[in-house]
Design brief:
With 451 residues, this protein is α/β, with parallel strands linked by helices. It has a domain of 91 residues: Urease, subunit C, domain 1. The protein is built from 14 helices and 15 strands. Strand 6, helix 3 and strand 7 form a beta-alpha-beta unit. The chain is globular and about 65 Å long.
């Protein structure tokens, strides 16, 4: 059934627009955006934020590995992650994922790209139960998901085989992985070679040929790259080039490619990405949590580079806080203010930049995929409605509300979240909220005993 929602203001692709109605077709796409009068369904509607990178099982790691134990780093954290990955059951994973996805909805994320590599059983035995648990959890809360199965074969740049801790992730060959993709059928949106540590560059051509044959040549491709300085140096030592240059020299990068993190990309590498239309997927809260470093977002933004945002490890799930951490990281690095701002402020350009890039990252240009990340005709009606009287937005008009929210706000300032024109969140609550939290608590008690 078609409907119309009316707002005092919306964040369109060219900035704030006042007194607008959004006509929504029965299939959830926007038919028209037009001038309107009160009564309003809300104060300010902005595009829902696509979450372009999630490992939802890692939501269970919050609070683990925080005691000082010597030289703590990404590499020591990874050992705790392996213990979790090796022990979590499909039932526990469903509870963890449902809780994580519900939090994404409450926080203003309206689509998630799940970078999924728990392909097998804890003992390495084959079976799709973990994948089905993740998909069922997303369906249970009503969060659209783009499943990106991960190809993972080696444990380092020297081509050594996957370790025992990685057996739940690993496939024996490209063909073995493609069989998994084929078996999952329509649930799969794209594919993700995990990283150049885990996928020998010589296998990328066969991998992409196989993926294109199954999913089409416009399906999205995501890869972890240049997240850690040690990773960059190991790649340079083993293969003679930095990871992004190596990737760009090996495959034809383009708009279907999303490079996750790219924290230590050189100026030349960033230029190559912009020239070919590939985007970076930044995960500021996780990059801070793991001590990765700070991506030069200001330089990339001013050069009109494409970017998206993701929650990655999911220890803190908050769309506006990802945007805030991104902006504040640039301020700390430069010791200056308003680093991603334009003359319209900071909140509007940063949110629009990440939402539009996220929409391209999660859907690609594959036929039949939803167009998301903008409030425009032809796009899915994914909306985050901000309160006029929120704890951090009270007293603000349309011109400053987004700046107030980005610099200090959180989920409590959200009135409602719509997906395809259907309201999924109202004043901070999703359907079955109490059951979701209870089941998550039970699963976490079991997980805590195991890791």
């Amino acid at each position: 059934m078609s409907k119309t929602l009316t707002f005092r203001g919306i964040l369109g692709s060219k900035g704030l627009e006042y007194d607008r109605s959004i006509d929504i077709a029965a299939d959830g796409t926007i038919q028209a955006v037009r001038a309107a009068r009160p009564p309003y369904d809300g104060f300010l509607a902005i595009p829902g934020m696509p979450n372009a990178h999630s490992h939802v099982f890692q939501h269970a790691l919050a609070g683990f590995g925080e005691a000082a134990r010597g030289d703590d780093s990404f590499w020591s954290w990874r050992e705790a992650m392996y213990r979790l990955a090796g022990s979590i059951t499909s039932e526990e994973l469903f509870a963890v994922a449902r809780h994580g996805y519900a939090r994404m909805l409450r926080a203003g994320f309206t689509h998630v790209a799940e970078f999924h590599y728990l392909h097998h059983q804890p003992d390495g035995g084959r079976g799709p139960e973990a994948t089905h648990a993740v998909l069922a959890a997303a369906a249970a809360v009503g969060l659209p998901v783009s499943l990106l199965p991960v190809y993972y074969r080696t444990s380092g740049f020297d081509g050594s085989g996957a370790t025992a801790e990685q057996r739940r992730f690993a496939h024996a060959s490209v063909d073995d992985f493609l069989n998994t993709v084929q078996a999952l059928g329509a649930a799969v949106a794209g594919a993700a070679p995990h990283s150049l540590r885990a996928v020998p560059p010589a296998e990328l051509s066969d991998l992409l040929t196989g993926v294109d044959a199954i999913l089409g040549s416009e399906s999205p491709l995501h890869i972890h790259i240049s997240e850690q300085e040690r990773e960059v140096e190991e790649c340079r030592t083993a293969l003679g080039r930095t990871p992004i240059d190596l990737l760009a020299d090996t495959v034809a990068l383009g708009p279907r490619w999303s490079l996750v993190h790219a924290t230590h990309a050189t100026a030349g590498e960033r230029s190559r990405l912009r020239e070919c239309g590939a985007r970076v997927v930044l995960c500021p809260l996780t990059e801070a949590y793991l001590g990765d470093g700070i991506f030069p977002a200001r330089e990339h933004f001013l050069a009109e580079g494409a970017a998206a945002v993701g929650t990655d490890a999911n220890v803190r799930i908050c769309a506006v806080e990802e945007a805030r951490q991104l902006e504040y990281g640039q301020r700390l690095r430069d010791r200056k203010r308003a680093r991603l701002a334009t003359d319209s402020g900071t909140g509007a350009p940063v949110w629009s930049w990440l939402a539009q890039g996220g929409g391209e990252a999660v859907s690609g240009s594959r036929a039949g995929s939803a167009r998301i990340g903008r409030i425009e005709p032809g796009y899915r009606a994914d909306l985050v409605v901000l309160r006029k009287d929120g704890p951090h937005t009270a007293g603000h008009g349309l011109e400053t509300l987004l700046d107030a929210w980005l610099t200090g706000g959180d989920d409590r300032d959200i009135q409602a979240v719509y997906i395809g024109g259907e309201r999924r969140v109202e004043r901070g609550s999703v359907a079955d909220e109490a059951e979701i939290r209870s089941d998550f608590g039970k699963a976490m008690r079991e997980i805590r005993r195991a890791i």
